[in-house]
Amino acid sequence: MSNEQKAALILGALISLGMILSGWILGNSALRFKEYERVVSVKGLSEREVRADVAVWPIRFSTASQDLTELYAVMEAHTQQIQQFLQAYGFQPAEITTAAPVVTDKYAQQYGGEGNVALRYTAHQTITIYTHDIEKVRSAQGGLAALGKKGIAFGGEEYGQKTEYLFTKLNDIKPAMIEEATRKARDVAEKFAADSKSRLGKIKSANQGQFSIEDRDSNTPYLKKVRVVSTVDYYLSD
Questions:
Q1: Does 28 or 117 have the greater pLDDT score?
Q2: Where are the alpha helices (DSSP H) in the chain?
Q3: Which pLDDT band, with edges at 50, 70 and 90, does 32 fall under?
Q4: Contact 107, 120 (CB under 8 A)
Q5: In this structure, are residues 51 and 224 in contact, taking their beta carbons and an 8 Å threshold?
Q6: Residue 68 forms beta bridges with which residues?
Q7: In whole angstroms, how far apart are CA 58 and each of 30, 53, 96?
Q8: Burial of 59 (0-12, 13-18, 19+ CB in 10 A)
């Protein structure tokens, strides 16, 4: 074997040995780092009760007739009565949307012709209120029965008449709620650190979580419960 070959062999062996030692050192360092890395994960909750600031109130009514012309005349009269009723409660025209009536011909739907259908035509229509005045909606709903006594047949909630109450000002309370949730998470972490005779270090990671808006209960849907949970990981040290 020549001197050059011997030198190359020795160099290769030294390089291989160096790589093995480097890998061992890095591996041990990582293990030691993991061994001494101590983390506590805590959650902080922030809740607020707020009032809805938007109401969407669909008023659905219907009628039936054997005569199509009469049917449309009755629906038009009922529409005017409801609109006058709403304006008397202070609703503005911009808050009131009136959909076109939907008419059904029962003869066209029934196989075999006229059959035992008493009234050939039925129609339903929806007037929708979109307003920021929640109390005005609640007050008007209580007076709607007076129109029913005049012969207007209103649909129930199962027909899409359920009033929807919305809270649209989440951005106004977000910063304060996030601050509160984060502060509560830190309080929990500090208590844990004290109990474990450790010191609370820097934040390793944080997750704000999603805001949720729900009815406070089924009887007061205009009152909402806003909720957010923040999850924070802190380092611990002795």
A1: 117
A2: 3-36, 68-88, 106-109, 134-143, 145-148, 170-195
A3: very low
A4: yes
A5: yes
A6: none
A7: 64, 17, 10
A8: buried
CA distance 133 to 126: 20
Mean pLDDT of the chain: 84
- The model's pTM: 0.74
Are 105 and 121 a contacting pair, CB within 8 Å? yes
Q: Distance between CA 46 and CA 230 in Å, rounded?
A: 8
In order of 126, 155, 174, the CA distances from 134 in angstroms are 20, 21, 23
Cβ-Cβ contacts under 8 Å for 125 (sequence gap 6 or more): 60, 61, 62, 75, 78, 79, 98, 99, 100, 101, 102
What is the distance between the terminal CA atoms of the chain, rounded to a whole angstrom?
60
Query: Which of 2-6, 103-107, 188-192 is the least confident region?
Result: 2-6
Contact 79, 127 (CB under 8 A): yes
Query: CA–CA separation, 196 vs 190, rounded Å?
Result: 10
Q: Which amino acid is at 126?
A: T
For residue 44, the one-letter residue type is G
Residue 31: is its pLDDT beyond 50?
Answer: no
pLDDT in tens, 196-230: 888 998 899 999 889 999 999 999 999 999 999 99
Three-state secondary-structure class, residue 207? strand
Do 126 and 101 meet the contact criterion of CB atoms below 8 Å apart? Answer: no
Count Cα neighbours of 30 within 13 Å in the Cβ-side half-sphere: 6
Looking at the chain, how many residues does it have? 238
